[in-house]
Structure formats: C-alpha cells, structure tokens
Fold Ig-like domain-containing protein.
Amino acid sequence: MATVTSSAVIQDVGVSSVPVGGSVTLHCFYNSTQVASHYSWYRQTLGGSPMVLSTTYKFDKPPKMLVWLEKHPRFAVQRQEGENHLHISHVEAQDAAVYFCGSSHNNVVEFGQGIFLNVEDPKESRPETVTQEPALASTNPGSSVTLDCSVRPGQCTEEHSVFWFKHDSALGLLHTNDGPQCEHRGSGSEARTCTYHLQKPNVSRSDAGTYYCAVASCGHVMFGNGTVLQVNEEDGDPDVHIQVLVMLSLIRMGILLVLFSVCLVTYCIRTS
C-alpha cells in the first residue's frame, strides 16, 4: 500500500497562461537528499481524474518513456540530476489542466504543489467577466463564510462549469455543485449574470488562503480575481487565563505578607 506525503518536490505553482500554439516548460526540482527512484508527471483536467503522463526510473539508461508520451510527441520530459521538467510544444486548448510533479520510493509517493496551465485562445468566444466578491473575507474560527463568483457569459451560449481553487501552500482543486442564482437585466444572453457560491462552514485556520473561481465554457477557462480568506487568531486557552489569574493572586498575597511582616517587626522594635 502506497503512502502519499507532502513533499520535498519543488515545482512551479499558481497559474501559468500560454496562448494556443505556443510552448511552455513546467519546472520540477527535487531535494538533493531525496532517495526517490521514480519520477513522474500527472495531469488533472477540470472535473476529471488524475492521469499519469510520464514515469522515469532513475537507473534506466537511456530513460524509458510511457506509451502515452510516444503517442503525444508535443510532450517531452527534460530530465537530469535533481530536475524533471515537462515541456509542452504547440499547446492546444485541451492541454488546460492542473499538472503535478511527483516522485516515489519504498511505496511512498510525494507530490509537488501543482500548477494550473491556462490556455488562451483569442479566437474563441469567452465569458465577458468573472468577478469574485469580496476581495478580502475575514472571519473567526468556528464560524461560516460564503465566497461569491459572478459570471456574465458574453457571447458564449454554452453552459459553463465553475470550479474553485485554493492556493496557499498548495494548489487544491475544489468543485462546487451549488446551482447558480441568475438574473436578467435587459435582453439577450449577454444581459444574464449568474452567481456561484462556495460555502465553508465551521472555518478553521487551515482554511486560510486565496480562493479562485475558474469558469470553463466555449473551450476556454477564465479566472476570477481571487478572494483572500483571513482567519483570525483564536482566543487564548481559558485554562491559561485561569493560571495567569491564580499566579497574579499568589504574587499579590506574597507582597501583602511581606508588607505585614515588615510592619509587625517595626512595631515590635518600637515597643521594646
């Protein structure tokens, strides 16, 4: 049974945008102390499952490639000691996805944080605007918060899918099935605005980070401007407060006893 861990794998993170027909290199570096023997690249499309693009065994000379890479020569692995980069040439719209760099040894699998490759095609119709509100959301631990993503479809008449990304120390792909609330202002599809919600109940400090909504439609993906979720510090432990109060009371009593003893000695000296 394999174990997945947070990794010593360092890769490009966030969002990388590239035009259709262009090329891009996704970088991946490994800690010099790592003992991994297999190095891989994975791809996860919006709403899809992860798939393996490449797996390289450290001691293969020359390295052997998966059949998938042989059938897709636009993808190439650039591998040397401590590096395992993925180069994509003649980028196509279907290349838009989250790409993870990974390694494994002794049934332990480690992943990088992941990077989303956004493919831009100026010829495709796209949503006019994607707006997120609020830009900054501040809440307390244990409370709930709702993040909004408003979409105006523009000239695109296809149904769109909305996904949420959380980006802090890692890039997490979240999918919300919450139906939109749509309103029409005027006539035509361009007058329709739909709002999607990401609800987070019982917020904890681990939920802090930046959340992005991504709208997929007409072969294109557009991102919102992001919402920063700030989780306030929790109040201190009540037991600690009680201990502090008890300590202060003991100190106060000690000072009073010292003053009483001094007064008593002084009185005895004067009356003797």
